[in-house]
Amino acid sequence: MILIDIAAKWIRAEYARWQKRIRGLFERWRPPFRLQVVDGDSLPPVVPVGALVLARDGNEDWCVGMKCPCGCGRTIELLLIPEAKPRWSLSLDPAGLPSLSPSVFLRDGCRAHFWLRGGRVTWT
Amino acid sequence: MTSQNAAGNRPANSTITIQIAGLDLNFKAVSIVDPTPTGAQIAAAAEVLPDNDPFVLRFLDDGELVPILASEVAPIDDVNDRFVVTSADRAFRLKVDGEQYDWPAQYVTGKTVRKLAGIANDLQLMLSVENEPDTVIGNRDLVDLAVAGVERFYTVHETWKIKVQDTVIQSDLPTIKVRDAMNKAGFDPAQPWHIFLKVAGQPKQEVGLDFDVDLRTHGIEKLRLTPRDVNNGEAGNGFRLLGVDEAFLAQSGWRWRTVLDQGRRWLIIDDYRLPPGFSSTAVAMALEIPNTYPGAQIDMFYVAPVLLLANGNRIGATETLITIGGVTYQRWSRHRGQASPWNPKIDNVRTHLTLVDGALSREVNQ
Ligand SMILES: [Zn+2]
């Protein structure tokens, strides 16, 4: 019985390791997320795949939105306004590629947990 | 009271004061050197010449306008008695909420109708026009009373509006609970939401479901909703740093998180690069953020895994081990010197990390 437990644990760990590795490989092929700015405090009804949409109201950045990089189809909205908790910081590198800080963790559904850095997704 | 009685109370040849307005109903005090003026005298006091067909109306408190003939002695009781003087000779009839009023001109503004009928500010003035949809009459809108069938005004309670996300909802009451506004707009209040109330010229305000939104507030814009379905990596376990710290960490490119562990607050940077010469090339770097930070200083630093020098030698004053979130960290007992005490105004995570880097370099450069 103990052996079976150990084996099951090992298989689960290996599976997670491979899943992570495959996701990592996939991220190398995915074009980086690029910033698109829209006017107003809200995201458009449709957020294009591969875009990080920034809703800018006047000179205030309200939120960013993106399609979940896991492919589940869900739109993720992250608040940038200082009053929000949790909130995220958006920065752009010299090439204009967006980074978000801290990481993004979906509470339900696919429970994706990732960082966006330089337009690229790093799974945790 | 009759004009005789009113006049009888005053000595002959005395001056009386009454309120006179034109069609704008802006009454001004005017003096007349006759305690019993006729319609013609009131017209003269209002500077409407006899050639221009003066038309004098007594404006009663209930809004009724009573014509006074040129030869007729006006009944005057009080300094506040009001008269409307115009040069038309014909009154146009209009109705407001079924009450009849005569107006001595072909055109009337919404504001005048409101004054005439004494309409409260929170009521909206409407005009019913045959074969056309009823229209809202604003204060400055001009209505032509000569057009057949346009004389019926009525009042309705003003409807109060607010946007919920991109949906405009109406309310019969001037206040509405956030929960009800969301229901009206088709958002499920049972789901978790971030809800911000936006009012032009005011800082945005996070509100709860039972907050009463006062729709009379000037500049009220919208309830801005965001699904509360995403965490940062801490699953709600983290805490907020100072704005300068968050901005610094955001641009640093590090993976960082804040962790609460048994009442202690930790900033953990997961991939902190070390100078060469240690047993690892990178560590998880933990800084304890006191509850009263930045008043209280950040002291020492903690790394995981435990570090030795690359040659296997131990490092001084790093013997104490603690656990944060189940991971063992090595405490580096390094403190600020007397020469550079903590200054809450300028010191923060960034300045502390420069001390950390200095302490790390010193170990490998000896
Ligand atoms: Zn997903």
UniProtKB/TrEMBL annotation, chain A:
InterPro entries documented for this protein: DUF6527
Pfam families in UniProt: BubE
Superkingdom in the source lineage: Bacteria
Protein name: Uncharacterized protein
Species for this entry: Devosia salina
Lineage: Bacteria, Pseudomonadati, Pseudomonadota, Alphaproteobacteria, Hyphomicrobiales
TrEMBL record, chain B:
Top-rank taxon, per record: Bacteria
Pfam families referenced in this protein's UniProt entry, alphabetically: Multi_ubiq (PF14452), Prok-E2_E (PF14462)
Domain Multi-ubiquitin: 23-78, 92-155
Organism: Devosia salina
Name the UniProt record assigns to this protein: Multiubiquitin domain-containing protein
